[in-house]
Design goal:
- The protein is mostly beta strands.
- Helix content is 12%, strand content 32%.
- The protein contains 1 helix and 3 strands; from the N terminus they run ββαβ.
- The N and C termini lie close together (10 Å).
Length: 72
């Protein structure tokens, strides 16, 4: 399975909603990666796969549930 790029909307922060771009193999892993970037009182909203030829992202690959310290 290849790594894809996702835009994850974080909802409810003091500054309003914001979007973070993360690499992941699945949408669920994208949510895991976005949680690391979330501020207090933010929750995950939309998760949308995007095409980004430059592969600009806001964080590294997330780990897995069994190995959270090892990127997939």
């Amino acid at each position: 399975m290849t790594v894809r790029i996702f835009d994850v909307t974080l909802i409810g922060g003091l500054g309003g909603d914001r979007v973070v771009r993360v690499p992941a193999k699945t949408g669920v892993q994208a949510q895991d990666a976005a949680v690391a970037l979330a501020k207090p009182h933010e929750s995950i909203g939309d998760v949308v796969e995007v095409e980004d030829d430059l592969q600009r992202v806001d964080t590294g690959l997330p780990g897995t549930q069994t190995h959270p310290d090892q990127p997939v």
